Every structure is written in C-alpha cells, then in structure tokens.
Amino acid sequence: MIVGVLVQLSNKNIDKIFDYKVSDELKSKIKVGIRVEVPFGYQKLEGFVLEIKGDSSTDIELKEVISIIDSDIVLNDELLELGRNIKDSTLATLISCYQVMLPKALKAHHGTVVNKKFDTYYKINLNYEYKVNNTQQKIIDLFKEKELISRKELLDISLSSLNTLVKNNVLEPVKLEHYRTTYSDKITVKKELTTDQKKVVDEVLANSGFNTFLLHGVTGSGKTEVYMEIIEDSLNNGKTSIVLVPEISLTPQMVERFQNRFGDKIAALHSALSDGEKYDEWRRIARGEASIVIGARSAVFAPLNNIGVIIIDEEHSDSYKQDDSSPRYNAKDIAMLRGKYHNCPVILGSATPTLESFARAEKGVYKLLSLPKRVNGKKLPLVRIVDMNDEIRKGTGHFSRNLITAISSKLEKNEQVILLLNRRGYSSFITCKNCGYTFKCPNCDISLTYHKTSNTLRCHYCGYGTKVYNTCPSCNEKSIADLGVGTEKIEEELKSIFPDKKVLRMDIDTTSRKGMHAKMIKAFKNHEYDILLGTQIVAKGLDFENVTLVGVINADTSLNIPDFRSSENTFSLLSQVAGRSGRSEKSGEVIVQTFNPDHYAIGFTKSHDYIGFYNREMQIRKMLKYPPFYFICYIKISGKDVNYIGKEAAKIKRSLERNLSNTIILGPTPLSVFRVNNIYRYGIILKYKKEDMLYPILEKILDHYKSDSKIRIDTNFNPSHF
Length: 722
Ligand code: ADP
Ligand code: ZN
Hints:
This protein is α/β, with parallel strands linked by helices.
C-alpha cells in the first residue's frame, strides 16, 4: 500500500504530497485524514494522510510510514475539501490551511505535548470465582445499580478490598476519558418571542436549504434570542449548529445564555481555554457529544457532522478575517462553503452590517431580515455630540463640561457609566519641549507609548520596552513632556474628578491575565464599580441593565486611521457602544466628544440611521473604487534589506502591469509604519471587478520568490484593514 502524506512543515518549497510505503502491520489502520509519523530527510515529521493509492508494484525506493499517531480521523472529507478551497482562494500553503482548522494539540509541536486525561472506573466480572468478605461484598453490591463505578467512589470504601478484588479478577479497571471542560445543566425557560422575532424565525425555517440571510437588527432587538430559537429547531431535527461571535464578545455572559438554554449540548471555543481544554472541546465535538459550537473565528472549522445552521453574530466585526497570518481567510466565506456542503442556512447578524453584506442583501443575493425595534419597546438612547474645538478654546481638559455634568448626575442616582477611549497606555508619545526630540522604537518607525503603571515606554507594534528618562538624550535638558492621551491617563483624571467613585479600567493591559476579563465584567455587573473605562473591548455585546450613560472620550481616534473603512468602522463602533446604554427599564444617553462634529459618520450615529450612513458611504466607495464596488487584493512585500525589497517590489509591479488588463494597480508604497521589528514593508493594492489572470500571475510571482529568503510576499484578498 502507498499513501500520499502532507507533512507538517510550513515551507512553500515542500508544500506538496509525498508518497510513502505502508507496512503490512499498519495497513489495516490507515485511513484518509489520520495523522502519521514519517521520515523526511534526516528528520521525523508529523503529517496527514491525504491519499491512499492502493497497492503498487513499482519498485521505486519509497520510505515507510513510521507510525500512526492516533487512529481517529482528524480531517474528514468535508474538511479536506475545504482546505483545498482555502488554498486556492488565499494562495496560502495547503498545510497551513489544514493546520488552521485544528486545535494546537493536533499540530506538530516541538514543545509541550497535550495529553488526554483519563479517569479510572471499574466494571464487574459476573462469573467470578472468588470468595468475598463483607467489605468486598459492599463494593460488589454497588454494581447492582451501576455498570461502571469510579475509582474515587470505591476508594471511599476500602483500598485494600479494591486491590484484592482486582487481583482476583472480580473487578476489571476501565479507563474513561476525562474532559477538562464542564458545563452545568440547562435551566432556562425560553422567552415568548415577539411578533417581529417570530417573523424572522419563520422566514428562516421556511427556507431550510442553503441560503444566506442578513439579519439587520438594532442593538437590543433580540437577535440572540432569535438565534437560539433557530438552533433549537435544528437540534430537534437531530442537527448541529455553529455560532460565531467576535472573540471579545465571547464573554461568560454570552456563553452562559447558551448554556442555560442548551446545557452540555454546547461546546465553547475561546482563547481563555488552555490548549488542553481546547483539545478536549474539539474531541467532544468530533465525537458528536456536543452539537452546538459557540466560538470565535476558527470555530467555523468545528468538526461537526450534519450541520443545520451556521450563525455569525456581529458580522461587521473585523475579527472574522484573519489578516495577520496565513491563510488569510474570512470565516464568513468558510461558513458559506460549509452551508452549501450541508445544505443549511447561514445567518449573518448585526446592528451595523458591513457595506459588502448590506449591498448583497439589496441585490437579493442574501435574504434581508430585520428587527427594527428594541425588544423592551425602549427607544434607542439619545446621542449628544460635543464639539471639542469649542471646549479646547475654553481650556477644558479631556472631559467636556457636558460629559462631567452627565456623569455626575448618573452617579448621583446610583446608575453606572461606560466610557470609551480607543487608545491604551498613558500618553501616545513623549517629547522634549526644548529640542523636539521624540522617543521612538529602535526596531519600528513609531513613537513609544508611555505606560505610567509600569513606568515604561513601550512599542505597541513589537513589544519593545524601556525605562523613562527625565532628561532628553538629545539636548540633555530636563524638559520631557507627554502628549496625547490613553486609557491610563483618563483613569487618573477620573479618579481626581470623582475621588469617591470606583473606576474600572479594561484594556489589553488589564485583561491579559487569564480570567480577568470575566472577573471584571462580573464585578461591574455587581456594581462594585461605578465607571467602566476601556478601549473597544467595552463596546461589544455587553449587557448591563444599570448603565444609563455611555461617553466616548474621543471619537476621532478611529476616524483618523488611514483606511478606506475608517468611517464605517467609526459609525459601527459608535453605534455599538451607544447600544450599551439604557438596555433595560431606565432610558439611556450617549455623549460623543469629537473634533469632527460635522463628519457624516458621527451625524448618522446621532440619528441612529444605518440606511442613511450606508447610502452616503456607498457613494464615496463608488467614487473611490473601493469595495463593495471593487474587490481588493493587498500584496505585502517585506524583508530586512530595504534596497533589495524596494527593487523587487518595483519589478513585481511591472510584471503585474504586463499581465493584468482589468485591474487598477496602486503602489508599491511603504506601509504607514514602514519598519516593524526591523523588517521593512511595501504594499501594492490591486482593485478589480473581474480579472481572470489575477490568480495565475500571483501564483507565478509567489513561485518565483519561494526560495528567496531575503523577501517575503503575502497576498491578502479583501483585507479587513491595510
Ligand atoms: P441583541 O442580540 O439584538 O442585542 P438580545 O437577544 O441580547 O438582543 O436581547 C436583548 C435583551 O432582551 C436581552 O436581555 C434578552 O434576554 C431580552 N429579550 C430578547 N428577546 C426577548 C423576548 N422575546 N421577550 C423578553 N425578553 C427578550
Ligand atoms: Zn517596535
């Protein structure tokens, strides 16, 4: 028997299937999709069996498969095909496309090995011929009730009796796998759906084959409740479901809601799990022990059979696109491929859908569903815009008088406040007032951010850190000043304005420790804090009934990012964060501070007018030839030798120009941060509607440079940002 094996080594040069012989001893266990160990050069590598070629009489000297790593199939037929699809559409290596689907524990690892955990149980041999004493009989009696009894339970009676019974073949040990994750039983009574919700559910259930739905529902309109109803229907039909949520809204709050309704039918995949826990969840899913998978982007690859529905919540979130490593796939595309394979609906939900999705719904490619009102009948919160240009003239700091007054009055009523500032750290850069020297990262072209808590200057790109100087290294004057503002500084100011109130700061710096995020959310919900201050982490999916004011310290941080989606992202972020206010009985209010009060993204947030924003933004996208009117492919060319990659980037551009006739080619231009970690980066942007030559020419270029270690070329189709 000969098998085709793809080895786990992500190198463009060896990304192909190699043939190996299989010994007679292993033959019976070989299946497509299992992991094997094979010799490769002088090393032993792990790989996936992708083909079985049957017996071959050729005498070519093939090496032999060394061993089978685990007998279960890790890549079934659907996933195997999906991997080939991802490779074709992203131009990544095939091995990276399979690795991205699997939990870390199943990838070739050079470090720690994640073991399965087992518990020991015992079963009884009914034909035993041993004369038992009283204590031993007590143990044996337990088996009248149960077939298997845990070692722990039997030890409570007597260790020596247990040992004797085992030694004399009365009891036989059985190893059962022990999962590190646990779920409690379901407890919820389900909610009676509103007429609007019912309409949406009925529409989906009436179109049970493959269809993509776009559920446009304002914040608090009961989308999650709709998802659960559809999932329940799928469950009742013996089918499974996938729910994708952005990582940061995969909060314990969200998981708890699903668990309350579906108990241990769910498996939750999120970054707070250890590698072992992730592996356990993955196997529970693969074995059909969990039928509802809820997780972030990569959960779209959950090894479920018989999928009945795939839901993508907050579909506008950029977290569904894997932008920073290969394969640069979009979970929405994968969801649709799987939806087609299983012939089931795919539902995209959001209060602020991406322009791409809404345009497809307008064209009838997706079916549009809408929930225009909040479930509790409450109006969306009143949004006030504060022009910070006026405030600065009056000498106010980072807080306008309006915002201070509003915070005070809410806190007086014992209500809670959420404040958003999308920049972490204390101040964004440190400079010398005497000579203008600024502290920059030695590895990257970016200024260092001051972090007061640790009293360090840190690079947000490469992680470089250094101590803070009092004197300027350039002119030796003691005139160092900090400019710009981050969450740490705002926290400090809040504490001085409201000395007797409790402020909770939530950003990557305070939530990176395992479990902190969950703890903070719980503490805020229990009203142990009055003000929750944070980066966009606070904008997503949180449901606190006592929050009646949301303040945005500076709406311009996201508006000023040089990206064609910056208006869309700002509108979406502001609408989402506004949706955190007044979610229950008390009505809510939102204050947005900005230096661009006339910007349409801010204006349409004030009027809660998604359609208005959509129409306006579509005109601009059309004019500037951006998605959804054009597709984009972003080519990143990077390397240490700036001259070399500059020259090669120009060559690549010329080659593209020669071969593409229906494509707009922009660049090469240095990325906005040209050097990161001492690697220089150039970008070329391709805009096209239909270009048959695109993939062939890109493949040729990638192939040409694949053995050149001085240059790296990455293609990113429809990037979420540049
Ligand atoms: P969304 O996902 O659209 O933001 P949710 O599903 O979280 O909305 O619903 C908002 C709130 O309304 C939640 O607290 C939820 O429990 C409640 N809710 C949703 N649907 C109903 C319903 N039919 N009856 C009563 N309460 C509901
Ligand atoms: Zn750096």
